[in-house]
Amino acid sequence: MDLIKPKYNIRNLAQSNLGLKDTEEVRSLKSKAAINRGQSESQMEALKQAQRNRIGKSVTGRVKESLRLGPLGMIGKHKSDNTKDKIRQSKLGQKNYMFGISQELHHSSKKVHNIETGEIYPSAKQCAIELGKSYIHVNMILRGLRKNTLKIEYVKAI
Fold first, then answer.
1. Shared domain check, 41 and 111
2. Which residues neighbour 115 within 8 Å (Cβ) at sequence distance 6 or greater?
3. How many domains does the chain have?
4. What is the pTM of this model?
5. Cα-Cα-Cα-Cα dihedral sign, residues 140, 142, 143, 145
6. 113 and 69 in one domain?
7. What is the secondary structure of 43-61 as a DSSP string?
8. Do 48 and 10 belong to one domain?
């Protein structure tokens, strides 16, 4: 590309913008675009204050990306008690996505087989209740993180 030196290419080198000057019109367009994107001064100040109040590590990864939401984000804003109450009301009773779904009907529930007795439990939680053990203990056995003292396993799909 550098050897051909086409007339329409105004850059000195094909991989660089070195030596290329933007016109006043282009500079003003870039300036307006930069002002319209991102957070307002008050939002930036709230972000800085929140960062100062953090204990430990700096913000990284997905959290940092979520902070770039712009003026529509809830960064630095507090929900009123009325808003909090509306959110709570929207999740009560029949409006809750888990309403009427018992453990064994949940999409991620797996049946558990007791090897010694041959009994099949509808879920790990129900298995823990009926065996008188904690759910965490049963779950760790099923995932292979603890020795299988209860002689249980997930029911294998056929």
1. no
2. 151, 152, 153
3. 2
4. 0.39
5. positive
6. no
7. HHHHHHHHHHH--SSPP-H
8. yes
